[in-house]
C-alpha cells in the first residue's frame, strides 16, 4: 500500500468523494502512474487535463522521489485555481507549473528543445490524436505516453489508438484499469 503524509492522505480521500464531478482518474490508476514514474525514474512529466489536481498529486508525489517536475495543462480557470490549492496543501506546488489554456495551443507553443520523458493525457478524448502528434516531438526515447479513458471512450479515442499501434516507434498496451489506460513506450 502506498502511504503519504497525513495531509496528502486526507486531500486524496476528500477528492475521491467528488471523483465523478471532477472526472478524476481512479485511485488504482493513480497508484499505477506513481509506481511507473518512480520505477522508470522519470523526471520531466507533462499532464494534459489537470482538473482539481487529483492525478497531478500522484504524478508529483512520484516526482518528489525522482527529483523531477510536472507541467500540467487545464483550460478552466476555476479548476486550475482549485488544483493549485490542492498542490500546495500536499507540498508539491514547488515542482509543478500549471499552464492555463487550450492544450493544443500550449503544445504548439512549446520550444523545440522542450523534452519530456513521461506524458499523461486525460483531457478532450477526440483530441488525443492531436496531443500525440505534438507530444511525440518532445518525448525522449524510452519515454512513456499514458492515456486514460481508452476503454470508456473507445470510439472517441480510436484514431489515436490506431495511430499509435501502427507507429513502429512505439510499443503500446491497453490496461484494463477502471476507464482503460493505454501505456505506450517510445522505443525508437
Ligand atoms: C478528465 S478531467 C482530468 C482529470 C484529472 N486528470 C484527474 O484525474 O484529476 C479533464 C480535464 O481536462 C480539461 N480539458 C478538456 N479539454 C481541454 C483542452 N482542450 N485543453 C485544456 N484542458 C482541457 C477539462 O476542463 C477537465 O478539467
What can you see in these coordinates?
- By secondary structure, the protein is of the alpha/beta class.
- It has one domain: Rossmann fold (3-Layer(aba) Sandwich), CATH 3.40.50.
- It is built from seven helices and seven strands, in the order ααβαβαβαβαβαββ.
- The chain has helices spanning 6-16, 27-39, 54-66, 77-89, 103-108, 128-138, 154-166, and strands spanning 44-48, 69-74, 96-100, 116-121, 139-148, 170-175, 181-186.
- It is globular and about 45 Å long.
- The chain starts with 5 loop residues before the first helix and ends with a strand.
- It binds S-adenosylmethionine.
Please identify which CATH superfamily we are dealing with. Vaccinia Virus protein VP39
Question: Could you name the ranges where pLDDT drops below 50 across 5 or more consecutive residues?
Answer: none
Shape: globular
Q: Kindly state the number of beta strands.
A: 7
How much β-strand is present in the residues?
A: 15-25%
CATH names the topology as Rossmann fold
Q: Which structural class is indicated by helix and strand composition?
A: alpha/beta
